[in-house]
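Case study B.
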Amino acid sequence: MSPPAGESPHWPAVGRTPRFRSPLLHAGIILGLIVIHFILPEYHNGNLARIMVLAVYAMGYNILFGYTGLLSLGHALFFAAGMYGLGLPMHLLGATPAPAFLGGLATALVVSAVIGFLALRTSGVAFMIVTLMFAQAGFLTVLLFGEYTRGDEGFVIQQAARQVAGIDLTDPSNRYFAALTLFGVCLLLIAWLVQTPFGRCLVAIRENEERARLLGYDVLAHKLGAVIISGTMSGAAGAAYALLFGYAGATFASVQYSILPLLWVLLGGAGTTIGPFIGTVFMFYLIDLASGVTSAYMLIAGLALVLLTIFAPQGLAGELRRRLMSWLP
Amino acid sequence: MDFGPHLILATLEGAITAAVISLTAVGLSIVFGIMRIVNVAHGEFFMLGAIIAWWVATAVGGHPAVGFVVAILVAPATVGVIAAATDWLVLRRITYDPERTIVATIGLLYIIQQATLMTFGPDARPVEPPFNRRLAIPWVEFGDGGLSLVWPWGLGTTSYKLAVIVAAVVILTALWLVMKRTRLGLIMRATQLDSEMAMAFGIPVTRVYAVVFGLGAGLAALGAVLIVPVQQAHYLMGGDPLLLSFIAVIIGGLGSLPGTLVAAVLIGLSDGIISVFFSPTLAKILATLLVAFVLVFRPEGLFGRRKT
Amino acid sequence: MTAPLLSTRGLSKSFGGLEAVRDVDFDLPEGQIRALIGPNGAGKSTFVGMICGRIPASRGDVRFAGRDITDLAAHRRIGLGMAYSFQITSIFARLSLHENVALAVRRALAQPHPAAVDQRVAAVLDRVGLAGRAYQTAGELSYGHQRLLEIAMGLGQTPRLFILDEPTQGLAESEVETFKALIRTLGGETTILLIEHNMRVVMETAEYITVLDGGRRLAEGTPAEIRADASVQRAYLGSGSP
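Model:
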């Protein structure tokens, strides 16, 4: 058994990741999610489908915040770009899901490239405010074109339209596996990404930007890459959310939806592959329980944010890595 | 109404917004300037000011003026104490790290807002103004008999609205005197210049921070108490003042009080005037984009001097 | 004579009204160990800052490996074969030593296969005597070991020009000895530009010395020549020194 961190001078800290453990962990999670589907009651299966899609959003956010060290307060813009990029063509033009999904991805990619190009001229607090402002402008734009987006009220994507290759995505079981597919792909993608030279460089930038630059890394290009990957993955979550749950509304573009992934990632553990999922599960059920009691359920989110910043900035998976599993990717 | 009278009315309404935003923005700016942190919950302190004013005014009863006077004394002080307490309980413990402070104050925003929803409820509630005389405004018209003074219908304001503007000027002047002429002001300016040096000279920096954070929140609350007879108290009312003060602080040059003040007045006035011509949503989009682009391309603010 | 690996012409930098570096012409032939010395505030760090691209030059130009790099961003210059080790230790404190060096190695290798990277990292760590600590967290190292890691990162880049900014600052006497030995072994493999305060290190390792004073190039020569130079003694050693 490994000793706790700090005691042994030869403690195998971050860096010596046994190459089989990480794939095993991720495959295990995906397998577990398949098995659990046949055990859990309907209600929790529905929740879990939603959680997996939202966890994809959190994982996207984590690439930028957890691995690159850039704190964005405007990711709802990318989530909404994916959501409306898919939703509007389906709603207004009668597009089919597959090309519409690609449309959602493309929209999120373009939006994140533009925002990244602009916002990366700033850093630190200015970066946070700039992303917040751009996202707010995006949210207001959704309201401004209420004629098409139906603003706060949103629009429903009809059940008949949500069919892919003969699979009915409105069926709970199909929906679960569709969400799991997206989740699994993104989880493995990130697990692979963070151990590529590109991913390692992101961590280096997070830890010491000037040093990374003077090792010869193009810091700006790497950061822009991170914004685009992060934004596009968030957009994929937005598009999937609209497709699987049949609804797009302005709430998903609001500040609250920029704060939520930050909260999930902080709770679960920033800069870990599994942290975002853990955080999303916990927070989802916490808010689910609270909203049964009071309409002021966002109180829980607020308290969690304050307590996490004070007491556990590493999050759950971060603590796990620190105490037990130093190899955690 | 003609264009001219319309513009006067818009300018007047804008001047009131400017007065309130000046107070709120200066509060935000003091906190940023001295403590180097961004308080995202600033708008919620504004909202708390209005809510507490309603509680107090309702509890006191009697003539509206009595309730209002008590409220304007009690509400900002209470909010100031609450803010100082949060500084002590939360911000001090995360050592005022800029990014973690933003996350924590976002949390604070939700806590204050949702706690208000649980206690005060989702309704908007009015506070009666202490005095409210209607004042008509004359307009010059070129008619058959040459120039003549007319009193267009709907062109007017109230004595209370004018008093809001006067009050804001008085408060800001007093604040300026405190910062420039008193020992407290000196201590705050010393802390702003170099907190470590200030600490070395025996200034209790952590206590100064608590006072500054309380003062900043108190100013926002003061602005809210002034506006609540015109606007009503509501648990979501903190969003707009936060956005507008943010804009003022950023385009005025982060941490510069005169810059913030000039920007706040301009923003308040233009907010009134722009909303006459544009939809409020479009006006807000332009405002948020303005903040973003100023930060991206001119981080020293529109009025600031570029450092070489 | 072949062209020097690094050369500057009229290189100058002013901060506000103050000229930190004035019209420095400098040539460094490939394979040499060169020391850059001068009193505090002579402009040494500013000068190398302009060479590796951390600080933009106000005037003049820099040539490296046969091309003008004056307008090149820092990371591009590094890509051409420079390495810079920081005066104030700048490592990735929360990452392992292995990863610290691997970040340097990956950038330098054309094909960063994990096995190739691991092999090279192990070799570099072994060379600076930190092999046994490869999986320790860098921030937990002693100050002296952190300085060594800083140098290991430079070595991991396999540079053609290795700029060392005050590498022995704050080291204990025994650590300085280890460092000197290390520099001497590097002599045959790469070109070294060494900024150093410790005159013993300079005299015992450098083949050639450039002296800066008040932002200008004051003198240049072999250690023996510099030792004998009266103007250097005046400027560098100041009054009162023998």
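Chain C touches chain A at residues 52, 54, 73-76, 78-79, 84, 86, 90-99, 102-104, 106-108, 112, 132-137, 140, 153, 157 (CB under 8 Å). The remaining cases will be described in the next quarterly update.
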